[in-house]
User: Fold these one by one.
Assistant:
Number 1:
Amino acid sequence: MLVNAASLTDITPDGGDYETVRRVIETITNDYRDQPSLETIAARLGQSPTQLQKVFTRWAGLSPKAFLQAVTLDHAKRLLGQERLPLLETALEVGLSGPGRLHDLFVTHEAMSPGEWKARGEGLTIRYGFHPSPFGLALVMITERGLAGLAFADAGEEKPCFEDMAGRWPNARYVEDSAATAPYASRIFDPEKWSGEQPLRVVLIGTDFQVRVWESLLKIPLGRAVTYSDLAHDIGQPSASRAVGAAVGRNPISFVVPCHRALGKSGALTGYHWGLTRKRAMLGWEAAQIS
DNA sequence: CTACAGTGATGGC
DNA sequence: GCCATCACTGTAG
């Protein structure tokens, strides 16, 4: 991990940088054809180039230029390329008990029973809170069993974001409790705290098919990517790539269940529930964590 | 680039 | 059940 602790404590407590970063990424991806210089971008955002450069680098650990390179098709293909098959064969010793090993952030998970799923959250108490994160405001939702939801919103968009999530388990009781959710937020977004000793507890609430897809996603290590059809193969339904896409899109715990590491077969970023720009940001941020 | 077909899970009716 | 809707993919013009 090249990102040092100081830079992380800079970004994580107040996620203000993300707004700037988001606009930079957006600008560049919209106008990549005319290769805008740092200067032009800075001018458009009403900031000085040096200032912009600094904020961006603090956020990603990567210069804007290097970052962009990390999110190109080329790079995406490389993420996909390396040893196609072995990747998903990595053991996932989860079961419903013992701590399993999972990608970079160690996670234990359990699935909800079908009964609980049918009840659509009936009898479940979900506590939630908004917290700043490197990717904008993060909405964290937890139950007694562990983390159940993670979503993102830009400033001012909290309400639709919450409703999006709450609509998935309409019968649950929702309690605002950011004191309870805060520890989760800080765990998740600080790579320094990713360790196997204290795995993050996660509870997957979804249909059987969805849960299988999400479990597959959890097997993708940091800095790697797979295609929707890889995932389809992994769950034993090679032709169901489209259905897989839909299931990936319904992932309630984005980032932790790394749905941003699922790409189209061409390496193109096909879609993202919380905005394609955010998907780029995550991939670029991760690229910086590895190097 | 667009169009279309084949695809499987899901949710509303 | 039926039908529309997808964060898909391959083929054709």
Number 2:
Amino acid sequence: MGRAPCCEKMGLKKGPWTPEEDLILINYINANGHNNWRALPKQAGLLRCGKSCRLRWTNYLRPDIKRGNFTGEEEDTIIRLHQMLGNRWSAIAARLPGRTDNEIKNVWHTHLKKRLPQYQQNQDKRRTPKQIASSNPSSNQDTEKEQDLVSVSLPSHVKNENTENRPLSPPQCSSSDISTLTTSDNIDHNSTTAPTENVPSLDVDFWSEVLSADNSGETSDLPAIFSDQQFFRFPLSSLVTSELESATSSSSSSMCDGMDFWYNIYTRAGESAELPGFDLDYAHS
DNA sequence: AACCCTGTCAACCGCAAACTA
DNA sequence: ATAGTTTGCGGTTGACAGGGT
């Protein structure tokens, strides 16, 4: 698979777009559409690569782009969606009409993440072991976020070569699978992010990673936020194993309904979570 | 006035998925 | 099934503006 030649080496222009170039691109797309971004600049008479054209169009020139500052409501929505989806900017943008993933990414990094109290804690978590040791000599644990991620083995009947190491797919979760939860032995339950009681609390990374699945169904009854067959991983420090087990014990069958599984975890965690603006109605929709 | 620092945001880069022949 | 091509995505960069010293 060959890499496309660098724009500069091809004599193509880089950098900020001029109003003239914008006009050419707008006129061309309005007249011809954009079926082939690679061919578009040549046909339109632009000295740009297709990638640059596509980016300029999708992030700036598209007629449905909403300009101007984000409203408080939009910002709250981004924060909530980011708590659920992580850095999936395009997925967040899909739920905010008129806003682009690039714009949302920018506003997140420049404004929103600073608002979250958890952000500072996460910054602390990401400090180097040396830094942590210097500030707290008694603690040498939990230096990496990845360290305490829940990992659940996928049932053999839903495995394929592409999902070998994937976390559990919600629709195929069984009770026995819950018992195979692997935990890190050195979880620091007294850390700043750990709950003070035996109830989970959430931090900003709760729904930290969403891996897109690529196939096979049983998702028709998923709420919208779980659409696109997504698999979730989350930090175990946020949710102890007993909570996971009890979250699934309500299911009468040995193979619990995938959505019940996630819904139970979601609501149990949510009951005690202190997430500003976190709307549990998502789980009911 | 000159310099530095910080915040903002448009644009680029590189990777991987999706598509096509 | 395979290789080449195109598209989409998230991370990162760098130019610019504004404020502080």
